[in-house]
Amino acid sequence: MEVQKGKQHTTAKRMQEFAGVFFSRKLVIFGFIIIVAMILLALLVPVLSPYDPNLSSLKEVLRHPDISHWLGTDDLGRDVLTRILYGTRVSLLVGLASTLVAGVLGMALGLIAGYMEGIVDSVIMRIMDAMLAVPIVILALFLGSALGKGLGNIIFCIGISMIPRYARVTRGSVLSVKKLDYITAGRIYGASRFQIAVKHILKNCLSSNLVMMTMNLGDAILTEASLSYLAMGINPPTASWGGMVSNGYEWLSMNPCVAIAPGIFIVLTVWAFNVCGDALRDVLDPKLKGTL
After folding, report:
1. Which fold would CATH assign to domain 37-51+68-284?
2. What does pTM read for this prediction?
């Protein structure tokens, strides 16, 4: 019983220390509030808005902001605020799913390359180097043009384009960790390659990759917005921030909110994830004091 209480006390103390460092700056608190607000808006949008995001109304075309339509309507008479809120779902889903795809596949490739070394390492890393030579948006645009538009394809394309980052970081960590004494001791005591690689080496590579995943969430959202802006993203009439900016810039003189409002949401969300990722880096690695 005393041991259990001691563990609970230790866990509570660590959580308190984590929160103390993570929320030590006002900008981080503000960024965290933005992320929580975006998640709540995405979950509660059917309750918050009475409008259908895809239902057109020719009588309501390009209305200026008023009491019934806080941000006005677009060129098809759809409520702009409602479409932005539904677009939050798409952006967060794309960001989380594509980052997860990139993180899992990238860490797996980096672990294999760093642990096996030799020809396997050379082949994997040369492919990663070739992918890194191409900007993420261009690579995702190429993959998207080959696979076609759609939510699933966009998640896959963005995830694949971000794999090299995780592979290189994981490989570097594996090369340094695998030479430590406790890894050698594990081999002496008969631990298999799989046990050493997954239970011991990969575990020590998670913190750096977790920080990068947090910061890459913003990059994934921005990439999705760029692809949607270039008409290679989410299929219309599904609402997406990038698609709204692309369709709305032609009507800036009629209702500026059609394009400016989703652009503001993109900027705030990407900024919030980058700030929180920077704070998480400070928590997990105190030697790296990030600046905002």
Report:
1. MetI-like fold (1.10.3720)
2. 0.84
